[in-house]
Amino acid sequence: MNRKIYIPILIVIFSAAIFYSYEGFSDIYDDRLFPKIEITALEDDISYVELDKSWSYQRINRRWTEEVNFPNTENVPGSTGVEDVLDVAPVFSYNKSIEVSADKVPDRSVLIIREQTTETVKFQDIVNIQELPHPEMNGVFEYILTMEWTDETKQYRGQKTISFPIVLDFPENYQFSREEIIQGDILEITVYYAGNPQDVFVEQSIFEEFRWFSQEGLLRGYIPTNYSTEPGVYQIRYGSKSAGTEYVKDIEVIAHEYRVQNLYIDENIEQQTRNEKAYAEFAKYFNPVRLQSAPVRYYTDSFIIPSKGRLTTEFGQTRYVNDAPTSYRHSGLDIAAPTGTDILATNSGKVVLAMPLILTGNTIVIDHGEGLFSVYFHNHENFVEVGEMVERGQLIGSVGTTGFSTGPHLHFTMSYYNMNLEPGFFLVGQPITFANHREFLQ
Fold first, then answer.
1. pLDDT per residue over 263-311, tens digit each?
2. Residue 367 lies in a domain
């Protein structure tokens, strides 16, 4: 009787590639394989380059396997570098949203946007891949997107880094901070995707010395107002010389009611602090420091109140000193507080003056960049020196009664160059007055 003998044969496969050719493989592990990635802007597909990738998944036997052949990436546009796809880089002439879709949503995505010509990084942060940001300037940019899958509850993990170029060619976008301003406020004009500052014009009659500050494709300009600005509706013409565009916008300057103050001071103090020597010293040291400013902003956060206390003089008040009229308006806010009370820097900037003056006592001036200054008079002590960079909220001095002063207080001024402004607009978004100062200063 013949019997069949079965001899077991062990087949050892040294390459995992054979499993990718097995027709049942994708059905078993399809939900664990390397994700499929597509990039679109509206309905247009964007080609990309794979810079780096790694992937592993858990097999049925619960062992983790590193994927090496990446069968799902065969249809990615062939390229070895960003330069190879520049010819097909999408040109954005209006705000199209860039969307990255993945059949496995990444747990974390980090985007780097690099300007091609200078190779400088313009953006680096965690992003939502369904809506990638644009730089606020025109040019050719390389987007480098790293997606990570790290969820330990899933049966796969890995990362993928891709790169693709885009060209931004947006038209200039003009933004006005407001359409009406109260005397003492400042109007900010921002131009996004701007070219040469000499090409962008602004014609207006509110402020004669208008200028642009340029920063990486963005232009900013300021039109300050105060008690010397006539209320009314002003027409602003603006546009691009090269493009032949011209636009018109009406801005209304609204009158602010300025009070009259009667100030009585000891005649000896007045004679010692309000005299020709004091005025000459003030003109020599104080006046020049607000004529030049850094061309860039030193600050990124909002302005803070430098010292708490009781308001004794509003901005813009007309003064009578010992019943005699003065020829000037009050240039800031007087905040009465006990001697030694902390004075904080209202925002980041560079100290351009820190010295005692006969008229204003211990004085500090900080340049915040782009023409904006903060001023601190009558300090008991100054804790900073000229040239020092200070941070928002840093202790810079203490309240005192030095110089022409009736008692311990901080005289605080904000100005655009040497044009004094209502500090309240920077600190709380409105004038600080006797009617509301308790809400803000105490």
1. 666 677 667 777 899 999 999 999 999 999 999 999 999 999 999 999 9
2. yes
User: Mean pLDDT in the chain?
Assistant: 88
Residues 6+ apart with CB under 8 A from 177: 187, 188, 189, 190
Angle at 302 between CA 296 and CA 308, to 5 degrees: 125
Q: CA-CA distance, 81 to 201, in Å (whole number)?
A: 41
386-436 per-position pLDDT tens digit: 999 999 999 999 999 999 898 999 999 999 999 999 999 999 999 999 999
**Bridge partners for 189 per DSSP:** 176, 221
The reply to whether 34 falls in a domain is yes
* H-run or E-run covering 374: strand 372-382
Domain boundary among 226, 254, 282: 254
Tens of pLDDT, residue by residue over 53-99, are 999 988 877 888 887 655 444 344 444 444 554 565 778 877 778 99
Compute the distance between CA of residue 285 and CA of residue 294 in angstroms, rounded to an integer: 18
Task: Please give the structure tokens belonging to residue 404.
Answer: 């022409």
Please identify, among 237, 254, 271, the residue that sits at the C-terminal boundary of a domain.
254
- Shared domain check, 35 and 78: yes
% of the chain residues with pLDDT over 70 = 86
- Provide the residue range defining the domain that includes 312: 260-441
Distance from C-alpha of 357 to C-alpha of 336, rounded to nearest angstrom:
20
Is 399 in contact with 409 (CB distance < 8 Å)?
yes
Indicate the residue type of 27.
Answer: D
Other CB atoms within 10 Å distance of the CB of residue 196: 12
| Distance separating alpha carbons of residues 111 and 132, to the nearest angstrom | 8
Where residue 383 falls (left for φ over 0; alpha for ψ -120 to 50; beta otherwise) is alpha
250 bridge partner residues: 235
Domain match, 37 and 120 both: yes
Indicate the pTM of the whole model.
Answer: 0.79
